[in-house]
Amino acid sequence: MDQIDYVIEQAQKLLSIDSPTGYTKHVITYLKEQYEAMGYETVVTNKGGLLVDLGGEDCSRGILLETHADTLGGMVSEILPEGTLKISPLGGLNASNCETENCRVITRFDGEYEGTFQMQNASVHVNGEFSKTERSFDTMEVRLDEKVFSEEDVRALGIMEGDIVCMNPRTCYTKAGFLKSRFLDDKLSVAIALGVARFLHDEKVTLPRKTWQHITVYEEVGHGGAASVPEGVTEALSVDMGCVGKGLKCSEYQVSICAKDSVGPYSYDMVTKLVRLAKEHQIDFAVDVYPHYGSDVDVTLGAGHDVMHGLIGAGVYASHGYERVHRDGIEAAYELLKAYVLSGK
């Protein structure tokens, strides 16, 4: 299996493991097993993330690669009298983007239950205001696939406030080479980083600079990259979703190099290095300014760590919705990340 096929396979496996912010232990367990099977040393942080030692020689100029395994999701906030559930979003989940989505409610002690997230009074033949109603977490609900007619019926199943609600990712890989799914942000990048680790292992490469990967688990709520920066790290690179949309140059067939997001500019020298590497290795890329975006490395700097910072990612369309990327974009991001860790500069 070539490296890009491996990345796509791993992305699909990761996408099949529910991991909304706050409920990430299963995906971290899976990733820990994958890295340790290749001989890498790992540490699960107190926050629940995974720190992976990829090796390397120069410990005084260490590199930290930051990806995140947490995704958008929901939490049960209220059990309504008729036996449906109101939810509160985890991260930037958009209610209208999830209309009619199948979902799973994860109870603390009594297993999982299936349901659908949709409008209250969702029958078009009954609700004359269906098209006019604003989609929000106040007008939408989880309707359980159980015979429940009251709050008491729901509580008897073991469902309670604070339970996690996971949206179906609906992952598929098409004949034309498109990977479509919810939560490509950022499980695709985790798979890309895993692919680079596999390359280093298979080719028995010793990196010129000490390199770690930090798979964070609270990026979607803004503090994933705030801690667990190893001693000696001088550069931190976030590998996250590359934005595709009106006003931006990046496509689903490229790797995006972010020069600035809504927090501020990325390190000028880091951006320059990444552009130079892309040109030297003939990698298809675009440089963009993201209007509504923040990354793990923004948080790393905000927490006071003295590092240069950068951000790259495969071009993903329809961010925080039903997302799409092409194999070419995955390969471009993989090749740029590989070139970066091998460069030694």
Describe this protein's structure:
Helices cover 26% and strands 30% of the residues. By secondary structure, it is an alpha/beta fold. The strands form three sheets. Strands 1, 2, 3, 12, 13, 14, 15, 16 and 17 form a nine-stranded mixed sheet that branches. A hairpin with a 4-residue loop joins strand 10 and strand 11. Helix 4 packs across helix 7 and helix 5 packs across helix 7. It is globular, with a radius of gyration of 21 Å. The model has no long low-confidence stretch (mean pLDDT 97).
List keywords for this structure.
single chain; alpha/beta; 9-stranded mixed beta sheet; 7 helices; 345 residues; 6-stranded antiparallel beta sheet
Concise overview:
The protein has 345 residues and is α/β, with parallel strands linked by helices.
Layout: helices, strands, pairs:
Blueprint lengths: L2 H13 L9 H13 L3 E4 L5 E4 L4 E11 L4 E7 L5 E6 L10 E6 L5 E8 L20 E5 L6 H6 L7 E4 L4 E2 L4 E4 L2 H19 L6 E8 L16 E7 L2 E3 L10 E6 L7 H13 L4 E5 L6 H7 L5 E10 L5 E4 H17 L2
Parallel strand pairs: 3-12, 3-13, 13-17, 14-17, 15-16
Antiparallel strand pairs: 1-2, 2-12, 4-5, 4-9, 6-7, 6-9, 7-8, 10-11, 11-18, 15-17
